[in-house]
């Protein structure tokens, strides 16, 4: 049976409902089941054309079993996992140039990835799956090429804020 938030509240009554509001029954993600997150592979950022060769969004917050779909919106890009930036035994992928890739990630943790032709141009991204405490901090010390270093500084600053918000 699928219970909407309103029905659930009615079923549970006032006090009971208040205690379960934060529980998975009503958490959006848990209610939806596995989700497909789209990431566009682009020559330029839609909000800032000077930012060239980008994944949008460059941070995806997912849960185990979710799928990341890399959309070849522009030509000349691919997506592949950075083997130095993933949990042990984690999901690997290597898309072909111009190909749309769908990756279902079952293993929790943080994953870094890049576009092979544009790695040193800074075309990189981050996927956070479930509990990332096991390897998230380790990813920050992975060696980066060219502009990827600067991009990751920015990505990790935003990811830090995102994760801090979750635990507060
Ligand atoms: Cu690219």
Bound molecules: copper (II) ion
Strand order of the largest sheet: 2-1-4-6
- Radius of gyration based on Cα positions: 18 Å
Average pLDDT for all residues: 87
How much of the sequence lies in strands comes to 25-35%
Can you give the helix content as a percent range?
25-40%
Distance between the termini: 32 Å
Whole-number count of domains: 2
Low-confidence stretches: 1-27
Number of helical regions: 5
Per the principal axes of the C-alpha atoms, what is the gross shape?
globular
CATH topology category name of the largest domain = Immunoglobulin-like
CATH class of the largest domain: Mainly Beta
CATH architecture of the largest domain: Sandwich
What is the assigned CATH homologous superfamily of the largest domain?
Answer: Cupredoxins -  blue copper proteins
Please identify the structural class as seen in this structure.
alpha/beta
What's the total number of strands? 8
Largest sheet descriptor: 4 strands, mixed
């Amino acid at each position: 049976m699928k219970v909407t938030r309103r029905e659930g509240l009615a079923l549970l009554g006032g006090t009971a409902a208040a205690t379960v509001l934060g529980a998975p029954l009503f958490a959006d993600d848990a209610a939806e089941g596995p989700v497909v997150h789209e990431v566009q592979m682009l020559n330029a950022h839609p909000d800032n054309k000077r930012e060239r060769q980008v994944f949008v969004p460059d941070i995806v917050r997912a849960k185990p079993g979710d799928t990341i779909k890399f959309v070849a919106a522009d030509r000349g890009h691919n997506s592949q996992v950075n083997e130095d930036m993933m949990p042990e035994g984690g999901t690997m992928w290597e898309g072909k140039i111009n190909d749309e890739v769908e990756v279902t990630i079952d293993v929790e943790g943080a994953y870094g990835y890049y576009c092979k032709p544009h790695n040193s141009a800074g075309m990189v991204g981050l996927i956070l799956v479930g509990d990332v405490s096991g390897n998230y901090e380790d990813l920050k010390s992975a060696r980066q090429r060219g502009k990827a270093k600067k991009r990751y500084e920015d990505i990790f600053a935003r990811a830090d804020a995102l994760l801090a918000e979750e635990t507060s």
